[in-house]
Amino acid sequence: MAVAVAGFAAPAQAAAPPGGCNTTRLLPDGGDPGVFYQCDADLTPVTKHCPQGTTFDPLRMVCGWELEELIPTTVKAGTAKLSVLPLGVSNLNATVTTNGWGLYNALVTFTSASGKVLCTARTDIFGQASCDAGGLLSTVDQLLRGYTATYTGNAKDGLQALAGSTGKGTIVLL
């Protein structure tokens, strides 16, 4: 059973770049399945909440009691840069999408090939997250094996709408 989302209809506005905020699309929250965003006339995301115990379905753009299945997400990781002195990695980056749109407020964890957490970052309105990792105890050889960017989904209080996903990125020596 779906619950209608108040304020869904909005006047036509010029859209932001693909994956960004526009007035015709409701955006799911990457961290809380009961939260979504509706863009105002200035193309700024405004936080909205589903009724207690329901989740936001980004495919149907409604709050509902249960989803038939988790909505898939995709993580695409990019290229980061390794500096040797001091040892650090800059611009670890990833884009998280669902249904072709950038996922807002998704927590992305960046790990080395050995599984060590390098840093974490939240996605912006375009689904992009990036961070730098300094003071590393890993070896240059280990870091040059690349990194993994992971989004775990948006489970909260026993509810989940978006599935987790991972992507592999590369690290190049400066």
Tell me about this structure:
- The protein has one helix at 140-143; strands at 2-3, 26-28, 35-39, 45-49, 55-57, 62-64, 74-77, 79-83, 88-98, 101-102, 107-112, 117-122, 128-134, 147-151, 165-173.
- It is mostly beta strands and 174 residues long.
- Strands 7, 8, 9, 10, 11, 12, 13, 14 and 15 form a nine-stranded mixed sheet that branches. The chain has a three-stranded antiparallel sheet with strand order 1-6-5, with no helix packed on it. It has a three-stranded antiparallel sheet with strand order 2-3-4, with no helix packed on it.
- A hairpin with a 4-residue loop joins strand 8 and strand 9.
- It is elongated.
Short description:
The chain has one helix and 15 strands, in the order βββββββββββββαββ.
Structural class from helices and strands? mainly beta
Order of helices and strands: EEEEEEEEEEEEEHEE
Sheet having the most strands: 9 strands, mixed
Low-confidence stretches: 1-18
Helix content: under 10%
**Approximately how much beta-strand content do the residues carry?**
35-45%
Span between termini: 54 Å
Counting DSSP H or I runs of 4 or more residues, the number of helices is 1
Instruction: Give me the count of strands.
Output: 15
Cα-atom radius of gyration:
18 Å
Rounded mean pLDDT score: 84
* Shape label: elongated
